[in-house]
Amino acid sequence: SAIQDLQRDANQLGINGGPVPSSETVLEVTYLIQLTPWWYVQPDFQYIWQPGGTTALDDAVIVGVRTGVLF
């Protein structure tokens, strides 16, 4: 709520005007796949509703992969 109050004050003063942030929701799905005893791959998917807590930005999709070698 402090950030919301700060943005409202800034909007009233005409400083850094912008939407008042509310909430950001994130869904993350990941899974570790052990390909060999020494090598793994970990795909990752994230979906973010209202990035930054504002509707001024489109929802975001992030896709990544991590790999590791054990020796």
Characterise the protein shown here.
The mean pLDDT is 90. With 71 residues, the protein is of the alpha+beta class. It is rod-shaped, with a radius of gyration of 19 Å. The chain has one helix at residues 2-13, and strands at 25-30, 33-36, 39-49, 60-69. A hairpin with a 2-residue loop joins β2 (33-36) and β3 (39-49). Strands 1, 2, 3 and 4 form a 4-stranded antiparallel beta sheet that branches.
- Helix % is 10-25%
Distance between the termini: 48 Å
Mean pLDDT: 90
Major sheet, described briefly?
4 strands, antiparallel
C-alpha Rg (nearest Å): 19 Å
User: N-to-C SSE series?
Assistant: HEEEE
Structural category is: alpha+beta
Strand content: 35-45%
Using the alpha-carbon principal axes, give the shape.
rod-shaped
SS element count, helices = 1
Number of strands: 4
Low-pLDDT segments = none
What's this, in brief?
The protein is of the alpha+beta class. The chain has 1 helix and 4 strands; from the N terminus they run H-E-E-E-E.
Task: Please write out the topology.
Layout: H1 2-13, E1 25-30, E2 33-36, E3 39-49, E4 60-69
Antiparallel strand pairs: 1-3, 2-3, 3-4
Provide the descriptors you would attach to this structure in a database record.
44% strand; four-stranded antiparallel sheet; 1 helix
